[in-house]
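Q: Isocitrate lyase/phosphoenolpyruvate mutase family protein, please. Structure only.
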Amino acid sequence: MTILQIQKAELLNALHLPGTPLIVTNVWDAITAKVVAETPGVTALATASHSVSNVRGRPDGEGISVNEAIEAARVIVQAVDLPVSVDFEKGYAPDAAGVARNVRRLIEESGAVGINLEDSVGAAKAPQFDIPTAAARVTAARTAAEATGIPLVINARVDTLAGGGEWAEAVARANAYLDAGADVIFFLGLNDENKVKRALDEVNGRISVIGNPGAVPLARLAELGVSRVSFGPGTLGLTLAALQRAATQLTALGEYPEDLGFPFAL
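A: Structure for Isocitrate lyase/phosphoenolpyruvate mutase family protein:
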């Protein structure tokens, strides 16, 4: 299992290729993982903490416990053969030592080969941990991964712009996290092409962004050199929107939606 997990981690890292970005359609349970994994062209999966929490009737922002988060990850990993990156929020711990313990548990107990790690203190995008503290938490995750022998792919999130902060601080954080052991920077707030270009110029490593309506188009993100695009809870939103449309049509005695016959099975 360790050899396979190492191979999956190495593959996940290699898939973060500037100009040919890894597109991860975020999932939240076994059946969504399986359906997405079986889609042609899909090479890796990523969870979304917001979705994982909401489908359990809990809020995002570590609304579930670390035990629940690890179990949710285990269920998803075991449902598929592809590498899985887990949105691990803030590591479910107030300090770096706790982050290290929990990341090690996640790797060993779930089989995950990648994580997102946030730098904000609470559920909102601000305030953030100060840069040395946030960087130490990234280092703790890297140290924990090294102890397991798994080359975990760390996608370190920078919440500065999304929280109303300044550009210079966001870039300083990004580079500090890369120096601390992150593989990729999940740079929130790159909501136009100029910001994407600037981040790619000023950050000393690969860039991950979130895609949504009104954002820079996927093809253009690839041309610019982005390495990963995810959609967070947006994929749960589009699923719920489709369900609501179908419920409206059925309640009105309308035609059976074609997707009502969508084949699925675990």
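A: Brief note, in case it's useful. The chain has a mean pLDDT of 97.
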